[in-house]
Design goal:
With 376 residues, the protein is mainly alpha-helical. It has one domain: Glycosyltransferase, CATH 1.50.10. The strands form 5 sheets. It has a 3-stranded antiparallel beta sheet, with helices on one face. The longest helix is centred in the first third of the chain and has 26 residues. It is globular and about 50 Å long. The chain starts with a helix and ends with a helix.
């Protein structure tokens, strides 16, 4: 089943918004020409919001602009991508890892040191794929060697070398993404093996057999965390895992079925009033009914890919609803910016636009463009 006309029309409209508004404004307003790299946030009038520059933002913006030329952007894609990557490379430490500063103590919350390394890998892969840089493979291999000590005996990676717990799914998900990106960019069997290892680990260790969902926080043996309050599920990540499993070049019937099941769970339990809510408890009951922009993009990306692969009209309907939700977040006075949060009462939170969301937005629009054109 091809994409419905309304989905194809929306894909073209969102792509125009990306090429004509979003990519230009984040390059023009958020690139720090004096200090290097990208500012973390823009106020909704397009001015810079003073915030510390996060490493993941430099990596994500480098990745986004490496994709930009292939999406049809006529701006300086290579310059914009390298602007973020050059700043990122100044944060390489003596042990080969990337940190905000050599003595930085990252949080143990699933979005710390390992998480940043995953996005450095992704930025390097995107640079190699877009601009043909053979030295990026050496950089990536050295980085992978550096965080090999994070490996867990039962599969996946911990937050730091030798740290038994807490363990988190989030950085492991993004390593799966980055390993896939490097396999595509290089064809090197090492990256294929690493990607396959992450897929097998996720299906064997992270999927809760009682619910079929993937939680966020785990005990030392990759069992669900001991405290009930820590056994929460983010529906947005169910969609994100689903897309990555469907996008995995070695996907088989088992992994595809698991991916579709993750989408089904997220659709049944994680969508209210047309938006993906932020969190569910361990029984998959609503825990936090607020909603973030990135959850809507991941729903759109996963449902579009699954719909194109299966021809399921209900998945195209879900993708269409996700487009409507995304449109609401993008409806701001300055084209190319967005809101990040809808509170539980349905009101948007008034705050600057985070640069980090562009990574999610570009991924969703690129996938929607492919899926609606039948380019699977």
């Amino acid at each position: 089943m091809t994409a419905p006309v309304r989905v194809r029309d929306a894909a073209a409209r969102l792509k125009r918004w990306l090429l004509e508004a979003a990519l230009p404004i984040w390059w023009a307003r958020a690139a720090d020409r004096e200090g290097g790299g990208y500012f973390d946030r823009l106020n909704l009038d397009g001015t810079v919001a003073p915030m510390p520059k996060r490493l993941r933002v430099q990596a994500r913006q480098a990745h986004v602009y490496a994709l930009a030329q292939g999406l049809g952007w006529e701006g300086p894609a290579k310059q914009a991508s390298r602007h973020g990557l050059a700043h990122l490379m100044t944060h390489k430490c003596d042990d080969g890892l990337f940190r905000p500063s050599p003595d930085a103590a990252p949080p143990l919350n699933g979005e710390g040191l390992l998480y940043d390394q995953a996005f450095v890998l992704l930025a390097l892969a995107s640079d190699a794929a877009a601009f043909g840089q053979p030295d990026r493979a050496r950089d990536a291999e050295a980085l992978a060697d550096s965080f090999a000590a994070f490996g867990h005996a039962l599969g996946g990676y911990g937050e730091a070398p030798g740290l038994a717990e807490p363990l988190f799914a989030n950085a492991n998900m993004h390593l799966f993404e980055s390993f896939q990106a490097w396999w595509r960019a290089s064809g090197d069997a090492r990256w294929r093996e690493l990607a396959s290892g992450q897929a097998a680990f996720a299906l064997a260790r992270l999927v809760n057999p009682a619910t079929g969902a993937i939680g966020e926080r785990f005990a030392a043996d990759w069992r669900p965390a001991a405290a009930a309050a820590e056994r929460f599920v983010w529906p947005g990540h169910l969609y994100e895992w689903a897309f990555l499993l469907l996008d995995w070049p070695d996907a088989d019937a088992t992994s595809r079925a698991a991916a579709v099941r993750l989408i089904e769970i997220a659709e049944a339990r994680g969508v209210e009033r047309g938006v993906v809510i932020f969190a569910l408890d361990e029984t998959l009951a609503p825990l936090d009914r607020a909603a973030r922009l990135w959850g809507q993009t991941e729903r759109l990306r996963a449902c579009a890919r699954a719909a194109a692969l299966t021809g399921d009209g209900a998945l195209w309907e879900a993708a269409s609803e996700a487009i409507g939700a995304l449109d609401a977040f993008l409806d701001v006075p300055t084209p190319g910016l967005w809101r990040d949060w809808i509170a539980a009462d349905g009101a948007f939170v008034d705050e600057p636009a985070p640069a980090s969301s562009l990574y999610h937005i570009v991924g969703a629009i690129a996938e929607l463009d492919r899926a609606s054109a039948g380019a699977m």
